[in-house]
Amino acid sequence: MDLRAIAEAAARAGADVLRRQAGRVTGLRTKSGSQDLVSAADVASGVAIVTAIASAAPGARFVVEEPEVYDLAGVARGDLGDDEVWVIDPLDGTTSFVHTYPCWSVSIACLRGGFPVAAAVYNVPADELYSAARGAGATLNGAPLACAGSATLEGALLGTGFPYDRGEPLDRQLQILARLLRPAHDVRRDGSAAVDLCHVAANRTDGFWETALRPWDMAAGVLVVQEAGGVATALDGGPWTTQTCDVLAANPALHAVLRDAVAETGGDRA
Hints:
By secondary structure, the chain is of the alpha/beta class. The protein has 8 helices and 15 strands.
């Protein structure tokens, strides 16, 4: 069974739904806070994705950001501790989608033993499909990716994002931002952690960090970075796992520099 091909096909199915609904948002509501949005498009994309995977891989289990998807698609709710489970964000960047800011994505990863082994991230407005398989490299629209870039913070273009929780998690993020923004070449923020990770793999940015994330935000992008030859870890430099709530990704030369800079702020300790 070609898990990467399944992930790619499912990402296209979700992307097709999102394209049709782009610009006419319905069913909008909030989740954990007033900034954390979900729309009918999130759910519809999720149904299309899990249906495509379940058709290709009968018996597949799922962890999906939007819980309505399980019943609507008639699929089994999985657990991050399952031997094999598909972890899915049907619309990473809902705020951008709602505001028609052109950066939102579908993010899909198949995990075995808690670690991603196949992944696809579809940056829908850009029509860019990133994919990866453990030990088989990463691609962008079929072209191989090789992560490189600046070895110094001063030469680095960085990416980041901001948490929905505007209390202590935001304070922590702002502390890290202040430390990195001053010496860095510059910092970008697009609103989809999955795409931001892929930008590191594609050498569009040299490094990326973000806090207060969930596994479906990161799992696919982490594998794309790693298979492109980059380094993707927890913020403290430890291995990324499904229990990790933050991420630090960069080309190999820059990763240790970023890790040490973040450690100076104490921001690597949640």
